[in-house]
Write a structure and sequence with these properties.
The complex is a heterodimer of chains A (468) and B (204).
Chain A: H1 7-13, E1 16-19, E2 25-28, E3 31-34, H2 40-49, E4 59-62, H3 79-95, E5 99-100, H4 110-116, E6 125-128, E7 142-145, H5 148-157, E8 159-162, E9 166-173, H6 182-193, E10 201-206, H7 208-211, H8 215-223, E11 232-234, H9 239-245, H10 254-264, E12 277-282, E13 289-291, E14 299-301, H11 315-328, E15 343-346, H12 354-364, E16 374-377, H13 382-390, H14 393-399, E17 403-404, E18 425-428, E19 443-446, H15 449-458
Parallel strand pairs in A: 3-4, 3-6, 4-5, 6-7, 9-10, 9-12, 10-11, 15-16, 15-18, 16-17, 18-19
Antiparallel strand pairs in A: 1-2, 2-8, 13-14
Helix pairs in contact in A: 2-5, 6-8, 12-15
Chain B: E1 6-14, H1 21-24, H2 44-47, E2 70-73, H3 85-93, E3 97-100, H4 105-112, E4 117-120, H5 123-134, E5 140-144, E6 149-151, E7 157-159, H6 164-172, H7 176-181, H8 184-192
The chains are: A alpha/beta (468), B alpha/beta (204).
């Protein structure tokens, strides 16, 4: 064990149950979050093998991906979604797994619910059959997405067989200018290192601009680590983290909380620890970002123009860029600002927390959604929804012509009724702009909640700094 | 899980970088509680028009590639979500080996859990294999896991690297869970040593 260790090294070392001769580790998992889409085959596997869930007290289930975000109190109409939810409900009952029901106020996107309930804590290993599990790294936890076979493995053994990742440091120095947010930081990072830039690595985000973020912002940053190819993102826990956790339902209480904090304070990276890769960004240069292509590295400032494939370094890149422009219906040299949009989606595990909704409402207040534009606001959980309603944000949104919905993954991934139709162009606070991600033929522009609200009220991609 | 030893078959060329898991199997097809039956929707958005008709230009719709067992693809194959439905869809279609310059981590791991071998080879070598694959049924590739060799139609052998533990599991069709449960005593000990302040999830 090296004398100076990174946050990742410490989290890893603390969870190694056994190190096998070839370096593969039996890694202990502290928290397992389960949802309806990636778990049915795992529970079926347990049943076939006659196995139990080893730690029901480290496991929690909730539905988020396929549920509708309106009218759910009168029942769910889609038979396939209904079957998946009924299957989860049967599985949690049969195996004794704690479950937050569909109509419970705590129901929400698994990556919003976990931190909100104090279930995701610093120093932990956290997994879920969902790639955006990287979100929980904002707590100072090693959190990553797994496939269904590994979901079954964790249910049965509370461990995974893994080899350690490499360490990557992304340092964002300086102070963000007005109008730029956590979303703009992470989009700029992915633009810089590319969609495969983090492959094989765990990214630790540090620097003045990261420390200055609140927990919602830190979760936005860690959430999109997977979009840079890194399975996990990390931010060292500090007083901002501890203040966030204190008093949450499943957080340690009283003396236990003090003991926990004392341990959590030992986690940040030691001076002189080794990173395999380091990337440094200057926050002062980050201006609001928008994606223009069909993967998240195809991103640029809102002040930019659509790039020309002719300028690509080689034929393969040129073809790839042309394919993106054809799909997106954009022309080289066209200004991004002013591009007309049809739909606005404010939500997803990236940007559906109360802070995100406040940022969007601050832009929308007193204005109205542009003619012909459909705009959805989808809170990340029932508790976020209640908080927003207590602050009057729902009234701001509905007065401005936005739809105010029930919590869920919604239009992030096109597997529930909220979908784009072919050719529709969407300003979206979600995390992926892949072809067809929000519905077949749909065109996605990734941006921050404030930028999404600006697009909604103007009907086009807009530099939010010109509105406020 | 089925063993993977030697696979000889037609290879389909899909020379596009960053094929994401939404391309491999769009989310609207994830509303299943089974692992099987996903093959018909493999690459659905690239493979079918809006009315459901096959797009004749898509590689797997061409007669010579309808029974392809190997895919030769571009870099960063399988990026995006953790959905194991992606390897399930490939497997259900009949593809048991994907060759590419690089893979996204989660997809790469998911392949091994399902008897699919992901082979990483340098971009220039993948270019040669793409050229072989263009020959369709006239040119079968052979992938030998034990010897870690891809054999080209002309007999040239190309060595590839694979993690020793994953190779062992794939060659023998081993169940990871069974292997891990051999360490159950160590897991028990680990749990006994957990700090007292660490909360459990109860009374939800």
């Amino acid at each position: 064990m090296p004398a100076a260790r990174t946050l990742f090294d410490k989290l890893w070392d603390a969870h190694v149950v056994e190190r096998l001769p070839d370096g593969t580790c039996v890694l202990y998992i502290d928290r397992h979050l389960v949802h309806e889409v990636t778990s049915p085959q795992a529970f079926e596997g347990l049943r076939l093998a006659g196995r139990k869930v080893r730690r029901v007290d480290a496991t929690i289930a909730v539905v988020d991906h396929n549920i509708p975000t309106e009218g759910r109190r009168s029942g769910i109409n889609e038979p396939e979604s209904l079957l998946q939810i009924a299957t989860l409900e049967k599985n949690v009952a049969d195996f004794g797994v704690p479950y937050i029901p569909v109509l419970d106020e705590r129901q929400g996107i698994v990556h919003v619910m976990g931190p909100e309930q104090g279930i995701s804590l610093p120093g932990m290993t956290i997994v879920c059959g969902d790639s955006h599990t990287s979100t929980h790294g904002a707590m100072g936890a090693l959190a990553f997405g797994i496939g269904t076979s590994e979901v079954e493995h964790v249910l049965a053994t509370q461990t995974l067989l893994q080899k350690p990742a490499l360490n990557m440091l992304v340092r964002v120095d300086g102070v963000l200018p007005a109008g730029a947010t956590a979303k703009d930081i992470i989009l700029a990072v992915i633009g810089e290192i590319g969609t495969a830039g983090g492959n094989g690595h765990v990214i630790e985000y540090a620097g003045e601009a990261i420390s200055a973020l609140d927990m919602a912002g830190r979760m936005t940053v860690c959430n999109m680590s997977i979009e840079a190819g890194a399975r996990a993102g990390l931010i060292a826990p500090d007083d901002v983290t501890f203040d966030y956790i204190k008093g949450r339902p499943y957080a340690p209480k009283a003396d236990d909380f003090a003991k926990a904090v004392a341990y959590w304070r030992t986690l940040p990276t030691d001076a002189g620890a080794h990173y395999d890769k380091t990337v440094v960004l200057d926050a002062a240069k980050i201006i609001p970002q928008v994606s223009w292509g069909t993967n998240p590295e195809a991103v640029m400032p809102i002040t930019g123009v659509v790039p020309n494939p002719a300028a690509a370094p080689d034929a393969a890149k040129r073809d790839q860029m042309q394919r993106m422009l054809d799909y997106m219906g954009l022309t080289p040299g066209q200004k991004l600002a002013g591009t007309k949009i049809d739909v606005v989606f404010i939500g997803s595990c990236t940007n559906s927390r109360i802070e995100d909704l406040r940022a969007a409402a601050a832009v929308a207040v007193g204005k109205h959604v542009a003619h012909g534009v459909r705009a959805l606001v989808v809170p990340g959980s029932g508790l976020v929804k209640r908080q927003a309603e207590a602050e009057g944000l729902d009234v701001i949104f509905t007065n401005a012509g936005f739809e105010w919905r029930e919590p869920g993954c919604s239009m992030c991934l096109g597997m529930n009724p909220d979908k784009l139709t072919p050719g529709q162009r969407c300003a979206s606070t979600s995390n992926r702009n892949f072809e067809g991600r929000q519905g077949p033929g749909g065109r996605t522009h990734l941006l921050s909640p404030a930028m999404a609200a600006a697009a909604a009220v103007t009907g086009m991609l807009t530099d939010v700094r010109e509105l406020v | 899980m089925d063993k993977f030893t030697v696979l000889t078959g037609v290879a389909a060329p899909l020379n596009i970088a960053n094929i994401d898991t939404d391309k491999i199997i769009p989310a609207r097809f994830l509303k299943t509680i089974k692992r099987t039956g996903l093959g018909k929707n493999l690459f659905a958005n690239m493979r079918y028009a809006e009315d459901g008709a096959e797009k004749p230009e898509f590689v797997l719709n061409q007669p010579k590639y309808r029974h392809a067992e190997i895919l030769v693809a571009g870099e960063n194959f399988g990026c995006g979500s953790s959905r194991e439905h992606a390897p399930w869809a490939l497997l259900d279609f009949g593809i048991r080996c994907v060759i590419a310059p690089s893979f996204a981590d989660i997809f790469h791991g998911n392949c091994f859990k399902n008897g699919i071998l992901p082979v990483v080879l340098p971009a220039d070598v993948c270019e040669q294999l793409l050229a072989d694959a263009e020959l369709g049924t006239n040119a079968r590739l052979s992938v030998d896991l034990a010897r870690q060799m891809v054999v080209r139609p002309d007999g040239q052998e190309i060595h590839f690297e694979v993690d020793a533990f994953r190779k062992h599991c794939l060659l023998n069709g081993l169940d990871d869970i069974g292997l891990t449960l051999a360490h159950v005593a160590a897991i028990d000990t680990y749990e006994t040593n957990e700090p007292a302040w660490k909360p459990v999830i109860a009374g939800v």
